[in-house]
Amino acid sequence: MSNATPRELPPTLPAALALVGQPMAVVERELILATLVHCNGNRTHAARMLGISIRTLRNKLADYTAAGFAVPEAGSGIARNAPA
User: Fold this and answer.
1) CB-CB contact of 52 with 61 (8 Å)
2) Could you tell me the CATH number of the domain that includes residue 29?
3) Which has more pLDDT, 76 or 1?
4) Mean pLDDT highest for which of 1-10, 58-67, 70-79?
């Protein structure tokens, strides 16, 4: 029998488990979009939280919009649909 004590699981584990097995691009996109919603669409704040430049964030958001993903509008936190 092992002397190891059971390790406590972080409270965020259920959210992380939803991303297990997903490609890194999907995980990155979900994290970026969720952070942007958390920041009410504030790109500067979201970029700082994510540890990336505002330019990188804007480029990724442009790619997501072009791919048809809903991206929160700047300053609103409300997702808008990609242009048709």
Assistant:
1) no
2) 1.10.10.60
3) 76
4) 58-67
